[in-house]
Give the backbone structure.
Amino acid sequence: MTATQQTVDGRPTLRIERRLRHSVERVWRAVTAPEELARWFVAEVPWAPEAGEEFEAGGERGRITALEPPHVLAWTWATSGTGSI
Amino acid sequence: MTAYSALAEPSRREILDLLRDGERTAGDLVTRIGLSQPGVSKHLKVLRETGLVEVRPEGKRRWYGLRAEPLAEVADWLEPYRRHWSGRLDALEQHLEENPT
């Protein structure tokens, strides 16, 4: 695993990289299906998910900013932070 | 101004990114960043005042270099976020190991 500080779109960014030995399809399901997220993420994430969808998870509001199955999922969550996989 | 405010400006972060590889002169920074000489000088002044950059005179030249201390402070601030996501990704990895299909 690596974690590096970068500047992306003019904002300071913490990039965390993790290689998983499972298939892209399996990992995609783990990071998008609500019942899968409930098993490993900090909160249940009740989303479809759909691009632009707004959701609430763990008492914080978020919005899906990019969705390109099965490779890109990005969302804002908890104040102004942005998370993406 | 604090190190955090100094880092909020994209050109200043670009200067720091360039200095990560080693010391550079103001002229070199001007060429690489595409800002005017006064623009770069102004940013270097802020970076020096906040302790992010130090200058070393050598003959006629002035070499600008990174100072690690204020950056370490910013890294400390980021550490909880890094730890949080590392922990989540550990949990994801474990979940996949236990439920491979």
